[in-house]
Amino acid sequence: xxxxxxxxxxxxxxxxxxxxxxxxxxxxxxxxxxxxxxxxxxxxxxxxxxxxxxxxxxxxxxxxxxxxxxxxxxxxxxxxxxxxxxxxxxxxxxxxxxxxxxxxxxxxxxxxxxxxxxxxxxxxxxxxxxxxxxxxxxxxxxxxxxxxxxxxxxxxxxxxxxxxxxxxxxxxxxxxxxxxxxx
Length: 183
Known about the structure:
- A hairpin with a 4-residue loop joins β7 and β8 (127-128).
- The chain has helices at 3-15, 19-34, 37-41, 58-64, 134-139, and strands at 44-46, 69-76, 79-84, 90-92, 98-100, 113-116, 120-122, 127-128, 145-149, 155-156, 170-172, 177-179.
- The chain is globular and about 40 Å long.
- The mean pLDDT is 93.
- The protein is α/β, with parallel strands linked by helices.
- The protein has five helices and twelve strands.
- It starts with a helix and ends with a strand.
C-alpha cells in the first residue's frame, strides 16, 4: 500500500473510535509506557498534545507533571521548537493544537525521551507521519530515546519508508510493545 492509501485508511479507522475507546486505549498505552525503563529513567521528556484522532495525552501529562519535566513541541515554520509544559501557558497554535507559549525554548540535546504520535508504525520501528516531516526533522537532531505510541490497528507489518524517515526505538500500542535495536 502507498503512504497516501495508508493515511486514508488509518484516518477512517481513527474516526470510528468513540471518546471512551480513545481514553481506554490511551490509559493502556501510557500504562505500558510507564513500565518501560526508558520512561522510568528519563527526567526530561518531550510529549505531544493530541489532535482529536490521536491518543489523548492530557491525563498522562497531569498525572506525571510534578515528577517529570515535560516539554511540548511548537510549530515554527517547518520545524518544531521545544518548550516546557505548563498548562497555564498553552494557546491554540498550528493545526489547532494547544502549544506552549514563550521564548524559553530548549535544545533537542536536553531531551532524554521523545514520545511520538503517528499515522502508523511497523514492526521494524518505521513511522508514518502526516506527511509534513516535522517530527523527522526534529528526531534527526537528537539522540533521545524515541517511543512511538498509537492504537493497535496503527501497527502494521511493514510500511514504505524513505531515506529521511527516522525510525523509533520502541513502539507501544494497547496490546503490543516492540523494542527495535538500532543504535
